[in-house]
Design a protein that fits this description.
about 80% helix; mainly alpha; about 0% strand; about 325 residues; 14 helices
Length: about 325
């Protein structure tokens, strides 16, 4: 790939990440000026988690039209990558992350990427509508796994002593999780071949979906701690290294091991190498995790991951793998 093409890839990455950074900066400024406070952040985060993000996921899935059987290898590769990152982060957190409220947020920061917003945009740019369809199905299925694993790792903040009770509590949180309910409902809806919902319902759902990311980023920016984010020895930096360096490298290794065809290899890399998901902040706050730490990881990886994503895709294109 020549210098002009590499510059174009990096420019595109900047164009899709700048709005996110701008909204977070607005949230940070509004909080500093006292325009929004902790009460607003708490209510807005619950609105996003319980209503807006579920609508976004539900309508994204029911609109996708792909052959699921053709993606088994890709989805399997995604599951393997996710579990390796999750288990590795859990082991690391056990020994090197002392604060209980930080452990689950750290683990989530390492394994959970922003597939619904950042990844799908990049996949569409790289592979067109076909790539977008493949990415949407991958996103829907892996997002269910993301949310299950997130509930498991964040449940440690509840400090339940009895193992049986803790297992039951985790199971109840999984089946009651609005994001998981929305995704399962969408796959069932699509599998049954039901016609599209009435137009008023679709438009209402889409309106709620459209405010999911901006409101989540606004809240994340409002809770941002710049000093902590830039602390090289902090947990936020350790999680960020896992997200921007370890995760993309693992995606390459898994892609080679599964001998994925170029488009599927590219989809896997883009899905795994994107910044940490905005939903990770919302879920951390909803489940009692360290939301400031989650916001710091989100901010740092939003900047750095996009550069790594562009450079990584350029290198993989030179090798002929994507």
């Amino acid at each position: 790939m020549n210098a002009q093409a590499l510059f174009a890839a990096i420019s595109f990455a900047f164009m899709i990440v700048f709005p996110n950074l701008a909204i977070m900066a607005l949230g940070y400024a509004m909080h500093k000026r006292g325009t929004i406070n902790a009460s607003f952040i708490d209510v807005a985060s619950k609105l996003v988690f319980n209503y807006c993000l579920p609508c976004l996921l539900f309508f994204s899935v029911i609109k996708s039209q792909v052959n699921y059987s053709e993606q088994i290898t890709l989805i399997t590769a995604g599951v393997v990558t996710t579990f390796v990152l999750f288990i590795g982060a859990e082991i690391y957190a056990k020994y090197f992350v002392p604060n209980q409220r930080d452990k689950g947020v750290f683990v989530q920061g390492v394994f959970r990427s922003n597939m619904a917003i950042i990844s799908l945009s990049v996949v569409g740019n790289a592979y067109g509508s076909q790539g977008t369809s493949v990415g949407a199905v991958y996103m829907g299925l892996i997002t269910i796994l993301y949310n299950i694993l997130s509930v498991i790792t964040l449940s440690r903040t509840q400090n339940v002593k009895n193992f049986g009770q803790q297992s039951l509590d985790i199971f109840q949180k999984i089946i009651k999780n609005p994001l998981i309910i929305a995704l399962v409902a969408a796959f069932v809806y699509q599998a049954l071949g039901i016609n599209s919902p009435p137009t008023p319902i679709v438009r209402t759902g889409e309106l709620l979906a459209h405010i999911a990311l901006p409101l989540a980023l606004l809240c994340a920016g409002a809770t941002l701690d710049i000093k902590s984010m830039l602390g090289l020895s902090g947990v936020s930096m350790q999680a960020s290294i896992g997200r921007v360096l370890v995760a993309p490298l693992l995606a390459v290794v898994v892609g080679v091991a599964f001998a994925l065809p170029p488009m599927h290899f590219g989809v896997l890399f883009i899905m795994v190498a994107s910044p940490v998901a905005a939903a990770s902040y919302v879920m951390a706050k909803a489940m009692g995790g360290n939301d400031v730490l989650a916001a710091n990881i989100l901010a740092f990886t939003t900047v750095v991951s996009m550069i790594g994503l562009a450079v990584g895709m350029a290198c993989l294109r030179v090798l002929g793998w994507v």
